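Practice set, problem 2.
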Amino acid sequence: MTAIEDRERIARAALTRVIEPGDESGGRWLSRFGAVGLMDRLTAVEVDEATLPGASQRRLASYRARAAAADPQRDLEGIAVAGGRFVCPGDGEWPTQLDDLGGARPIGLWVRGGAHLRTWAVRSVAVVGARACTPYGAHVAGLLGSGLAERGWVVVSGAAFGIDGAAHRGVLSAGGATVAVLACGVDVAYPPGHAELIRRIGEQGLVVGELPPGNHPTRSRFILRNRVIAALTRGTVVVEAEYRSGALATARRAVELGRHVMGVPGPVTSGLSAGVHELLRGEGALVTDADEVVELVGGMGELAPERWGVDRPRDVLDPVSACVLEALPARGEVDAARLARDTGTPTDETLGRLYELHALGFVERHGGSWRLTRRAHEGSNARRGGS
């Protein structure tokens, strides 16, 4: 790392204490002046209206107070002690898909864990949903997490209660790769009830955040965190969500960014699935398992297996034989001539089909008449009893 790179990294680390995540005005100033230049302006002895074009005096004063209190060297040393690092745009580990956020792009990312963030992000999927989820939702999220992990995909979520936690646990149970994007410092366990889960993610996966060490979350930071989840991944799966929820906000941002958006359907009577169903009526694609998710976000040839019902003996019949078998009454016997009339098939061909069906065990002969066997009844009950 050169001296200029050192200054850039230090300046960006400082700016994570000055500019809130997702602040597009801050992003424009950063793009215009550079990280070092922006910090120089914020810490200058004298300032005027040209220091931050468009910023009010009150806002400028707030930024300057934060800049004066920032200690980036301490933060960088602290994250290193915690086994982490600060990743900036331009680093080899920086996931360039985050650049799609434009002015709302993170200033940098504080990262804890041994994996390479950019490499993992290339093949990643977000799984998000309600905090107060149902047992069904938690079960599905866990299956998606483990299924995606088994197929070599990284699962990204927010480490929250409910769907997020279930997805992370599903990945961990399969020995897979998962990333938790936090709305606080990566050294802060939030929610506290997930302290052990976040610790395990840090050991087996990655814990990522925009905020410097020690920072705690706020309501707005949770919403803004979701844009990182949407941009970082190839697609977002929503398992359960009400009409107004952070998970749907993630999905909407993913749509804006041109990412795949998917939803898992639930009971139409469940308010927790109402938002997902609305998503499916619009931009979302319906998915039910990891195979279907991978078919959408994966490469060419990564197709979900074809779905078939239970194999039945009748499945092997050609159309004409199936037609003759269908014409036989459920009870009683019928002769070949009547079957020929009913099916519009020549008598000789009808007889040939009947003998074929006899060999397969579907019909039995009684003198000059034919009737269905027990096997034929068993093979048709499910079809005739359904709708």
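Problem 2, part (b): a different protein.
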Amino acid sequence: MPYVASDHSKKYDPEALRQRIPGWGADSDPADRPSHPREKLRDPEDTGAHWTFPARQEPVGKRERSVEHTAMPPVFGTAQPLHGVSGAIRRFAYDRYSEGQTAHWLLLVVGDRVDAISSHVKSLASRRPDDPITESGVLSEAGHHPLSSRFGQGRADVRHIWLDPIIVAGPWVLAGVIAVRTVAKIVRR
């Protein structure tokens, strides 16, 4: 027999349903709810938590704080103070935009990218620059079944394999092109 939609206009007797279906109507009478004793109204201030407000940490210098908060939390991190252009971008995000605005988060992401780029540039100027080939693990895959471990195993990262070389090597190639063009301009002068 094919499926036929039931007639929802039909009225049922609540007592008959309660007799036939265990737990039916639990939301109609608070006394029928299994969790009802826990739902008794209490004093909202009586949470059961007993603590005293901790002493506030003294801020050294200006700290970033979202515009919707009136005060800093009692304890906050100071290990990575904001610095440079990325710090200025992040300070602007905290000073100008609320955490509920997209611009706040986009500026924080931009600040992070600027910090990453400046770290790469500093690395290139150091005695031991970053090595994206060995640090990405590309060389280690050759000896550990690179094809059979990726395909046919249901791995989610197979969809973006084609993007990996662009993401890893792209910034380095771009930096190389810029460096070569800059040197070429200097030599021509």
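Answer key, part (b): Residues 1 and 7 are 17 Å apart (CA to CA). Residues 131-149+156-189 form one domain.
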